[in-house]
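Exercise 3.2. Students should predict the tertiary structure of the chain below and write it as C-alpha cells, then compare their answer with the key that follows.

Predict this chain's 3D structure.
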Amino acid sequence: TSAPVISQDDPGQRKVVGAVAVLRDVTDLRQSRQQEAIANSRVAALVQISRLLNATLIEDEIHQIVTQGALDLLPSKIASDARALLYGLDERKQLSLLGISPVERLKQPCLQGAPKPRSWSFDAKSSLLWEVYIERRAVASGNVPSDPRFSAAADQELLQGDSPTPAEIRSALVLPLVSGNMVTGHIILTSPVADAFDDLRLQDALTNLAALATIARTNARLYSETRRRAEELDALWTVGQSVVTRRDLTEIADKLTEQVRTVFDADLCTLSLWETAPNGDRHLRWLGHAHEDSLLPELDGQPLLECGRCDEVSRCAAANGELEEAV
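Answer key:
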C-alpha cells in the first residue's frame, strides 16, 4: 500500500514532495488461505464418504468406497499415480485383500471357479505389521526402498497387493483399522512420488477415514451375523416341519442337506448318516449331496465328492461324535 506526501506552503498551492509505502509479505497469508481451503475440501470429502458408508451394509461396496475415498483425500498431483489397498485380518490370522483403487484384478479363481480374495499369512516377525497391529500405530515412509520396515519380501507383497505388474513405490502410508482393543485390518496408500504422505494434516484426514471404515465394517458384520442367525432359525424351522410332515428318510435327508448348505453359504454340502451295528461297527446308511447350480458344469461326469480328506473327516466326526474341520 502506498500514499503520496503532500506539502502545502501557500494557501491554495499543494505539491507532492514524497511518498509513503507500506510493504507486507502476504505469502504466509496466501498459504494459510490455501491450507484452509484444502482442509475444508477434505472435511467435505469425509462427510460425503460418511454418507456413502451409512447408505450401505454390503461389505464389498464399503471396501470400494473406503479405497476410493482415500484417493479422493489426496492432493490431485499425488492422487493421479497413487494406489489405495484395504486389508482385513480374520480369526485364522490371514490377511485378505478386500479392496483396491484404482480398480484392478482383485480375485483369483479357485478350483471350482468361484472367486476368492487373495490372502497372506500374518507374519508376526514383520516389523511393519508389528507396529500396525500390535502397537496400533500408523506407519509413514517417504523413501520406501531404503526403509528397513518395508524390506521384507512379505511386506513388499502387501504393498503391491494383487497387481499383475509391480508398481514403483517411493512413499507409503499404512493405517490400522482399530476396533475396540483389536486391529481388524489396515489401509495402505502407495505413491511413486517421494515424501508423498508427509503432510500431518493429510495423515489426520486419512486416520479419520480409517475410523469411518472401521465403523462401517463393524456395522456390516453385525448385520450379516444377525441375518445369518435369522436364516439359521428359519432353516431349523423348515427342517422341523419336514421331519413332522415326511416319513421317508431320503426326503428328510435331502431337505436337511440343502438347508445346511444354504445356512453355511457353501458351494457343496455332503450329508452322511451312520448307524451302529450290534457288534459296535459303524456303517454308512445314507449319503446325500447338495450343491450350487453353477457347479454343474464343473461336476459333469464326475462324482460329486472326490476328496479323500473330506471322507476321512466325515468318518472321524462320526466315530468321535465331535466337530472335525479340514482346509
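Discussion points: Confidence is low (pLDDT under 50) at residues 105-114, 303-307. DSSP finds nine helices and twelve strands in the chain.
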